[in-house]
Amino acid sequence: MMRYRSSKFPGLSMAGLTGRDPEPIPEDHVETALAYLRLMRSTKKPTYSSYFLKHRAEVWGRHNGMSPHVCNGALILAAEMLGFVIEKYQNPKDPNVGIGVNREDVRKALKAVEDVRG
Length: 118
Prior knowledge:
The protein has 118 residues and is mainly α. It has one domain. It has helices at 27-37, 50-62, 72-81, 103-117; strands spanning 12-13, 16-17, 48-49, 86-88, 97-99. The protein is globular, with a radius of gyration of 13 Å. The N and C termini lie far apart (35 Å).
């Protein structure tokens, strides 16, 4: 398992921004999150939570031959690697972050999966 590390969020773990000693983030989770987020355009302000997007990436990954599981930390790390706007929430105990992705792109990716399902 490759050890991914965040330069922006040193305490990033599989669960997200927990502040605990970070455990390794699975490589297949990161690769799925990267592939999913590459379908998205960025926005100047956060539009969705990392937790919401991780679930969308899981659905997308399951139907595209990639990992059916994406941990919250992998989604956050992938967003950082691709240069998306990332904003920590005010509650310091919240492991999620806001990520700036185009809403229409998120809808299109979900619709593409639904169209394949029939």
